[in-house]
Amino acid sequence: MAKYVMFVMTNCAPGTDAEFNDWxxxxxxxxxxxxxxxxxxxxxKLTDEQRRQTRPDYGYMAAYEIESRNLPKTFSxxxxxxxxxxxxxxMNPSTWAYFFQPVGKRQVKAGTKPAAKKGxxxxxAAKKGxxxxxAAKKxxxxxxxxxxxxxKTAxKTAxKxx
Length: 162
What we know:
Number of helices: 5
Radius of gyration: 26 Å
Number of domains: 2
Order of helices and strands: EHEEHEHHH
Helix content: 25-40%
Strand content: 15-25%
Number of strands: 4
Largest sheet: 4 strands, antiparallel
Structural class: alpha+beta
Shape: globular
CATH architecture of the largest domain: 2-Layer Sandwich
Distance between the termini: 66 Å
């Protein structure tokens, strides 16, 4: 299954930020996520601090993750599915939307890893058909005994046993 990201740049009508954000988060995103193939969404707001002096024409961006074998069909389903949904008057009708596909492999800085979520080992084990308890044991870090301490303890025990 091919993966894509759709980036949508938007603005709200002047003075309607709260209404716009409420509509987008509570109504629009759930409507879009009902479309087959759209699996996740995340919204962003433009920060005041930027590398360049010029600013884009849009203050908000949404990134939609898409998994599809047939992207044109996903477009069609999205257009059809969103025709009859409520569109807030707080959204400026001028938007920018484009689809992108990955190029190369995702790279992560060495020594970093995503934050673990609660219950993740159990969920992953359930998908693989393993007991949750076994998965949880694997994810728990145990203190490692120092070699010298273990050997000394073992020698004392051996001497007492003679």
